[in-house]
């Protein structure tokens, strides 16, 4: 049954009323590919740490559309020509930029489908929609691929100061309650400009840019790379890996029909990929966890129960790589306690490294200084605090079941 009344305004907890600019955008929002984003959590398993973090890619995409509307308005008010076709393409590209995220977003990226990023899958979805909507997404796709001759349009969608980051920091800060990420996206947008078709920020906003970058750094350490969240995501990845292994050994596993294509086949048939991918979301993974929490395989059963009941791992961080001896000791203890072999124990003990830098000079933020010259951010700002934002910080960790303490 098709809905008759077209809803043109959405109420967003962050920005208030968001208007949908035209019928074509409305049709895209109504499409099942986009509605699926209501069932893809924005921040993986971070809700196990921050209980409010249940927002989805749907909220984020609509928020990005709103910020893009503000950006177009600001740039036009400064005399930058953006014609109606370009405007429409910008809205479509930002709206659809995350269509390619799979269940639990980053937590399972590269595990459900290997060797293909969410950006590549977003592009496949856009191309498919372009065919369904008579070529009306052609310019949006060109901009998204960086093939349009006005690069500031891609900068608005994907750069170090894009609408994506401006929305997700503010939104994740709101839903987690971590105030440091609450950046002033309206102020930053109002300071945008375009010179030679590149996106720039006016010098007046230098300290707002610094605030935005340090807010992002903080959100990475405190939220996205939170130790408990990292451990939980390892457990979820272990579930998928264990299911693969059991299937390889001929053991029956209760898998939702929608996931069978991805978990039961050794090689993925590319011609069916999009249709199958469009059918999976977080709920299929939850079903997998719930259906196997009493499985006869101890490893799979324990992993499912640990996630569902939030019996997570202990994580230790250090500034140097974790010595193998330390890991071996943990592995031996786990093997002995649960009568596991090496392979089985490897599903519960992990080590790795995480890195974070607030600003990468390689894809610079450009500042329009008071002499009307365009300079790179750390050249425009002489304070050492700006240079420090470009520093890469790496931390090492290992995690193991708390029962071993
Ligand atoms: N829980 C969790 N969330 C993450 C992690 N990495 C990113 N996120 C969340 C934070 C944001 O809401 C969102 C950012 O990722 P996106 O796929 O939207 O953008 P992209 O990867 O292009 O981010 P970037 O432009 O590089 O900052 O995902 C992670 O490792 N764990």
TrEMBL record:
Pfam family, one: HD_assoc_2
Name of the protein in question: Deoxyguanosinetriphosphate triphosphohydrolase
Keyword Signal included in the entry's annotation: no
GO molecular function, one term: dGTPase activity
Listed InterPro entries: dGTPase-like, HD/PDEase_dom, HD_assoc_2, HD_domain
Boundaries of every HD domain copy: 57-169
GO biological process terms held by the UniProt record: dGTP catabolic process
Entry keyword set: Hydrolase
SMART domains attached to this UniProt entry: HDc (SM00471)
Record carries keyword Glycoprotein: no
């Amino acid at each position: 049954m098709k809905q008759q009344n077209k809803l043109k305004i959405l109420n967003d907890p962050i920005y208030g009323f968001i208007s949908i600019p035209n019928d074509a955008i409305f049709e895209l929002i109504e499409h099942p590919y986009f509605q699926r984003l209501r069932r893809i959590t924005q921040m993986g398993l971070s809700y196990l740490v921050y209980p409010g973090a249940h927002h989805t890619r749907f909220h984020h995409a609509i928020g990005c559309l709103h910020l893009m509307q503000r950006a177009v308005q600001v740039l036009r008010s400064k005399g930058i020509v953006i014609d109606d076709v370009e405007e429409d393409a910008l809205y479509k590209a930002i709206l659809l930029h995350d269509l390619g995220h799979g269940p639990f977003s980053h937590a399972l990226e590269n595990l459900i489908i290997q060797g293909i990023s969410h950006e590549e899958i977003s592009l496949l979805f856009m191309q498919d929609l372009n065919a369904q909507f008579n070529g009306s997404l052609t310019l949006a796709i060109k901009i998204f691929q960086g093939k349009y001759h006005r690069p500031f349009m891609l900068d608005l969608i994907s750069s170090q100061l894009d609408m994506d980051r401006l929305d997700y920091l503010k939104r994740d800060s709101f839903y987690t309650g971590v105030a440091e990420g609450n950046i002033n996206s309206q102020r930053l947008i109002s300071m945008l400009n375009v010179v030679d078709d590149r996106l720039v920020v006016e010098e007046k906003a230098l300290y707002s840019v610094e605030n935005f970058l340090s807010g992002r750094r903080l959100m990475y350490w405190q939220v996205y790379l939170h130790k408990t969240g990292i451990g939980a995501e390892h457990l979820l990845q272990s579930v998928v890996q264990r299911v693969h292994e059991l299937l390889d050994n001929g053991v029956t596993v209760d898998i939702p029909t929608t996931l069978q294509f991805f978990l039961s086949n050794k090689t993925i048939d590319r011609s069916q990929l999009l249709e199958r991918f469009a059918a999976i979301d977080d709920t299929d993974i939850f079903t997998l966890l719930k259906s196997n929490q009493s499985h006869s395989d101890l490893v799979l059963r324990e992993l499912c129960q640990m996630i569902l009941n939030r019996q997570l791992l202990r994580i230790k961080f250090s500034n140097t790589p974790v010595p193998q001896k330390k890991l071996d000791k943990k592995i031996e203890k786990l093997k002995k306690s649960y009568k596991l072999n090496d392979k089985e124990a490897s599903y519960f003990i992990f080590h790795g490294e995480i890195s974070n830098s607030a600003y990468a000079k390689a894809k610079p933020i450009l500042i329009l200084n008071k002499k009307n010259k365009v300079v790179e951010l750390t050249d425009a700002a002489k304070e050492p605090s700006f240079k420090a934002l470009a520093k890469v910080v790496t931390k090492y960790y290992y995690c193991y079941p708390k029962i071993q303490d």
